[in-house]
Amino acid sequence: MKEIYEPKFVEKLFDNMSNSYSRMNYISSFGFSERWRRLFVEEVGIEKGKTVVDLMTGMGECWKYIVLKGDTNAKLIALDFSTEMIHRAEKNKAKLEGSKIEILKENVFNNSIPNETADVVVSGFGLKTFNHEQLGELANQIHRILKTNGRFSLIDVSVPKNKILKLFYMFYLKNIIPILGRVFLGSPETYKMLGVYTEEFGDAQHVYRIFSRPEFEIEYIEYFYGCATGIKGKKIK
Ligand SMILES: C[S@@+](CC[C@H](N)C(=O)[O-])C[C@H]1O[C@@H](n2cnc3c(N)ncnc32)[C@H](O)[C@@H]1O
User: What pTM, to 2 d.p., does this model score?
Assistant: First the structure.
């Protein structure tokens, strides 16, 4: 396996980035990341009283779009394997008092979530650090965790198809982001990896193919001219 997809490598990367991740994420998507989070969670339509699993939760960046106000019967299970991200997620949980949030510090490929727990599974920006084989295993896990008729929505930053947009966006990711990474973090190398992963990821077309199984009904989705892409779907059997 390429080193950049080794869980240890990814875990360390996010441990190192945790301090500046939110700011950098916002900047590297020109402020779009928040809009994309809201949109991809809206795609799945979360109803009151449901159990939602947020995979690769980071420090809980998607929670404000998942947790419905005053919905005391709902439950959110949030999973990530980075010690530092989880540490920050615990702090963010304290801010959402009254909501039932269970945080799991686990590898998604070896998680303790029981079969058929979730009405909804979401995952924001956690796809690009997986190779094809790992995405196949992610599909297995999402199928296992979801109840029948349960729905899911996944998104990640992507290389847009439009040539001008692509040139501009990749230049920004590969050259400007590492400079900003140095300013915020003293580590341009860490943030260079965002460009490396995004370029390798391309877009979610391969995720769509990998999830194209008889047990799922799925749909491919582009956000802002393909600068982010994802899939949404339903477990039908
Ligand atoms: C780009 S961040 C996304 C965080 C958040 N969901 C968001 O919307 O910004 C990706 C997260 O996935 C986590 N991650 C990557 N591979 C994982 C794995 N195999 N198991 C659990 N978490 C993983 C990383 O630790 C990191 O916090």
Answer: 0.96
